Amino acid sequence: MLSQEENDLLTRTGPGTPMGELMRRYWQPVAASAELARRPTKMVKILGEELVLFKDQQGRLGLIGGYCAHRRVNLVYGMVDEDGLRCPYHGWKYDATGRCVEQPFEDTVRGENTLRDRIKLPGYPVRELGGLVFAYLGPGPEPLVPRWDLLVEEGVFREVGHTVTNCNWLQSVENIMDPVHVEWLHGEFRNYARGRTGQEARRVARRKHLKIAFDMAEYGIIKRRLLEGETEEDDDWKLGHWLVFPNIQKGTDMLRFRVPVDDTHTAQWYYSARTGKNGSAQKPEEIPLYEMPSPSLDGQGQPRWEFLTTDVDPQDNAIFAAQGPIYDRSLEILGESDRGLVLFRHLLKAQMELVKEGKDPMNVFRDPGKNGSIHLATERREAFLAGRLGVEGEGGDARRAGYSSRYPSLLEQQSSGTKRT
Predict the structure, then answer these.
(1) In this structure, what DSSP letter does residue 185 have?
(2) The Cα angle at residue 120 between residues 117 and 125, in degrees rounded to 5
(3) Domain boundary residue among 101, 129, 157?
(4) Residue 19: which H helix or E strand, with range?
(5) Do both 220 and 340 map to the same domain?
(6) 213 and 239: one domain?
(7) What domain range is 85 assigned to?
(8) Are 122 and 164 part of one and the same domain?
(9) What tens digit of pLDDT does each residue of 149-208 get?
(10) Which of 84, 100, 136, 208 is the most exposed, having the fewest neighbouring CB atoms within 10 Å of its CB?
(11) Which of the 8 DSSP states describes residue 47?
């Protein structure tokens, strides 16, 4: 149980908050490269700030304040220029740093236009890696973009998923530190959902957790689980999988980034890199981008059971939202399965203190020699999903085929101007 003051400390990520200052020390994904290949501007909200991401006519990226300094027009409507973004209302132009470089009418009538030189929107560095666009909202000098193994691995098939979940960032990340929920939410509740939708024949056997463990490691926390029929000599127990500090889940073939949009919404990026397909010729702008379901209650206050019968991610997202916009940890009663949550909360507080002291927190990389390809060994995800969870063959086959073959394409929605509800 946390006090309300402690809960606010860990959940509030806006500018000037201790957690916001910590999260701003990290590169966070804000788009897929394929999005900017289709359309040159995108509205981005991250850590409580409204921004516009754009690619100019030279192919250079910029991330600046979302509204023109003149009459507060949303710059997602901006016109990309050779070297900047121009407001559609009166033609004011901004470069990639947010500096106003042209005011067409004022430049004409004022002669020496000193007004323009005093105008600057917020502007943040952006970098592309592995088909994602990362932004850094912290103080300079900016650190290196971490080259986690899957982002730079060659010869693999990649796909990216995205959703926005109606909840605070912390409850989605704390889920990574909760092994036992898998037995119930992705086992028994999955069976229950199948029963509610006439799929009783697809029920799977429950496998009990016998032991869980959490270890501090160089890049975060390693979570381990021991299920019925397994021993501590098995590789899956020895390897476990990662919570890469502060907000990344790492499995054998996937990274999941859980990024605060604001205090009550979380953007989740699902990044997969699978062998078995020819991915060597896959350009960043060709990587599929799909919409992962994040179901909330329907208009009648009922669960949307159709999303809860197969894949673990929609089940997780429904439960995150079911805890409320900001989960009140002053009312919780923790048990033996929650040791990982407690460890993570202590780690967050310790890293916030480092930032307060002017030091770099964990996983801020500045030495290129330590940022070649950062390998994170994990349990075998396919074996875990198909065997340890008891997911039948079609579930495993579908995952090997990729989520992008199952869920709507966000790129197609963006091209047509439609959005699935």
Answers:
(1) I
(2) 130
(3) 129
(4) helix 18-23
(5) yes
(6) yes
(7) 28-129
(8) no
(9) 999 999 899 999 999 999 999 999 999 999 999 999 999 999 999 999 999 888 888 889
(10) 208
(11) T
| Position 13 in a domain | no
Identify whether 279 is part of a domain.
Answer: yes
For position 183, which CATH number holds?
A: 3.90.380
SS3 assignment, position 233:
coil
Number of domains the chain contains: 2
Dist CA 165 CA 214 (whole Å): 27
One domain for residues 82 and 185: no
Angle at 169 between CA 167 and CA 175, to 5 degrees: 95
Same domain, yes or no: 311 and 277: yes
- E strand or H helix at 359, and its extent? none
Residues 121 and 172 in one domain: no
Residue type, 202: R
The answer as to whether 134 is a domain residue is no
Return the structure tokens found at 323.
Answer: 């805890």
Helix (H) or strand (E) holding 98: none
Cα dist. 60→38, 51, 92 in Å? 15, 16, 19
Distance CA 376, CA 250 (A): 8
For residue 77, being part of any structural domain is answered with yes
Taking only the tens place, the pLDDT of each residue in 230-283 is: 999 998 888 899 999 999 999 889 999 999 999 999 999 999 998 865 556 789
User: Residue 119 belongs to a domain with what CATH number?
Assistant: 2.102.10.10
Model pLDDT for residues 249-263, shown as the tens digit of each residue: 998 899 999 999 999
Task: Dig out the tokens for 160 from the structure.
Answer: 């990216």
Give whole-number Cα distances, 135 to 51, 125, 128, 147, 357, in Å. Answer: 11, 6, 9, 14, 24
CA atoms within 13 A on the CB side of 343: 20
Task: Fill in the amino acid letter for 213.
Answer: A
Cα–Cα distance measured from residue 196 to residue 198, given in angstroms and rounded to the nearest whole number: 6
Task: Give the number of other CB atoms < 10 A from CB of residue 297.
Answer: 12
By the 8 A CB rule, do 408 and 291 touch? yes
